[in-house]
Amino acid sequence: MSPAIHLQASDGPARLLLVDDEPQIVRALTPALTAAGYSVETAATGEAALSQMAGNPCDVVILDLGLPDMDGKEVIRRIREWSEAPIIVLSARDLESEKIAALDFGADDFVNKPVGVGELLARVRASLRGRERRFTAQPSFKAGDLEINFPNRRVQVQGDEVRLTPREYDLLRTLARHAGRVVTHKQVITSVWGPEAQVDAQFVRVLVAQLRQKLELEPSAPRIVLTEPGVGYRLKADDDA
Amino acid sequence: MDSERDTALRVAYFTYDVEAARFESLAAFGSSSGDLTLKIGPISSRTILRYAAAFAIVALFTGLAEYIYQLSHLLRLSALFLAAVLVVAYWLGAGPAYFAAFTAFLAFNFYILGGRTPLSFASWESILTLGVFFFTAMLTGSLTGRLRDEAQKAMVRARTTQILFDATRDFSATPDEAFIHERLAHHLAAAAGGGALVLTGAATFASPAGLAVSEDLRRRALALGEVDSAAGAVTTFAEGWSLRPLYADGVSLGVAAWRPPAGGKHAAEAQTLLAILADAGAAAVARAHLAAAKSNAEARARTEELRNALLSSISHDLRTPLAAIMASASSLQEFGETFDAATRRDLTATIQEESERMNAFVANLLNMTKLEAGALAVTRIRFGVQEVVDRTMRRQQLAHRRTVVEAAPFAELEASGDPVLFEQALGNVVENAIRYSPAGSTVRIACERADGEAVVRVTDEGPGVPGEDIGRIFDKFYRSPSVAATAGTGLGLSIARGFMEAMGGAVTAANRPKPERGLAVTLKLGLAPQ
Fold this sequence. Notes:
By secondary structure, chain A is an alpha/beta fold. Chain A has helices at 23-35, 46-55, 72-80, 96-104, 117-135, 166-177, 185-193, 201-215, and strands at residues 15-19, 39-43, 60-64, 87-91, 109-112, 140-143, 146-149, 154-157, 160-162, 182-184, 225-228, 232-235. Chain A has two domains: 15-135, Rossmann fold, CATH 3.40.50; 140-235, Winged helix-like DNA-binding domain superfamily/Winged helix DNA-binding domain (Arc Repressor Mutant, subunit A, Orthogonal Bundle), CATH 1.10.10.10. Chain B is 57% helix and 13% strand. In chain B, β9 (443-450) and β10 (453-459) form a beta hairpin. The longest helix of chain B is centred in the middle third of the chain and has 68 residues, at 268-335.
């Protein structure tokens, strides 16, 4: 495991807030997160998480959706009222609608329980990078074979220029903005067709298929634009496992 | 003439007798089918009686006139006879009035005047008298008739309203379809006088009970029910039967049939009322259908809700230990060298504890299935209760990192049963106590011997269970509202009860007496024979 790359705004190690009411999960995750170089705080209830965030804001929140005192979505909504800190939802629920709702409420990403610490750490890093990008607009994006030049809207795969339609480019740009993190169908529709558009998720699937035809070596086994079943899409980031 | 008009009226309004109905209570009408007989016969005894009454009145007035003549020798007494005609016309209607006019004229002319004045029968004065008598009879009789018509119409309206009211009140009393069909037949029969049937694909409802239904009628009725165009129409059939398909919301619900009493018939108004009655019944049946569909849908939704809750609960109970195991194992794999010995030990302990917890959960699910299928194998051996209690305590303390205290050790307590099942039942009860009481509070286990039984009591310091729900906590999937936020399947205690009862034991629960708080669950099992 390579040492973690910290891109937090403040000096010192990035601070994580781990919110889960199951003590064994907290016990199991804390050592690895600490070993990866983060300073880890924990909370067992939504109220505790909110007061901890208010007292000493953390850089990333890892949040279990099933809390004893309040719905995890409510915690997300209340954090988002004033904080832009990345929120990664950690959930044993396999209801797609819950994940979508959590993302639409402002969560940045989600991981399903059970999860290996390797994957969780990768998501934490992606979140921190995404936050970094929000503060400093990068003129270009590079991940694996893919390279995007934002000012002149140029896209290259393995150095070869790829010609995209305006919609395909908007989709790719949206995914790149959230590289490594999941983007829901609704988020894609909002940024490609506009917030008022009455567009079915089927349109998004068609557009993604078109984009894959142009970017992927093997469109049926995508390696750049990945599908999160039932939820949305994820653009593979540089250091994804 | 009179009897014709009268008959016409009677046929029009339901074959019942105006005079008789006047003295009938309206409520009694619906069921007194005996009064609904239609009379189309030539002259009824009542008519004869009315003419006789007219004759008697004229005779009375004649007597009065004779008496006045004897007193005063006045002969201008035609006004008195006019009064007699008026009285008859008012009381007895137009027919008897004409009869009275003629009789009064004869009595006046021949009895009072006869031989006393030079006036003859053919004189102008007597013709005038006769004319005035007849004119009075006609005018008064028709006025009285009209009054009666109005009264009768009002009564029929009231009766119609009453019939429909009674019927709809009956219909709305229940969502039971068979009952509505039965009441519809009853009300139709009461209104029609002869009898009624309600035929559905599955059953036939007849009123009066035991009414003979010919195969032809049944076939015709069922055929009608399948023809859309028959909706909203009354079809007639042999033996005076009228048929009306029961339709509501475009769905055929069967056929209603009715007939008048033998030899009678129904007028258009009566048929309309009966058809409305049938339609009200159809609407009630349709409403019952909807109510049944609604309650089915609600039951389905509840089942669905329960299934979702159960699935999400099982998924939570399986995935939480799995997540802890996965996180610990992957942490050890990725950071194994950098962790200190204590952290490594902690992580491996977590893996072990969580595996045990998962194993216990899977065992519970399996046993539940066996219990449901009746495939649970129960052995009956002598075992030490204390030993099982100790083992359960150790295991639960480890798994939950909570304090479980043994309040009353009882080394020589021996019970007869299946120690494996008893341990699982006790484990579920203790786990329940730990799960639903605040972290840091103590769970106590006490053993005793009472009434020839080994008794193990588990008490916690949790919120207890609301009084009215205490009996339900052993029901499968039941979860107390006071612990709704804590994950759980509602299976543990129901399995505990299943196991205890399979061994001939019992498990009960009670809130601890105030001021203590929490729940006390008691397991009882027969003592081993000495």
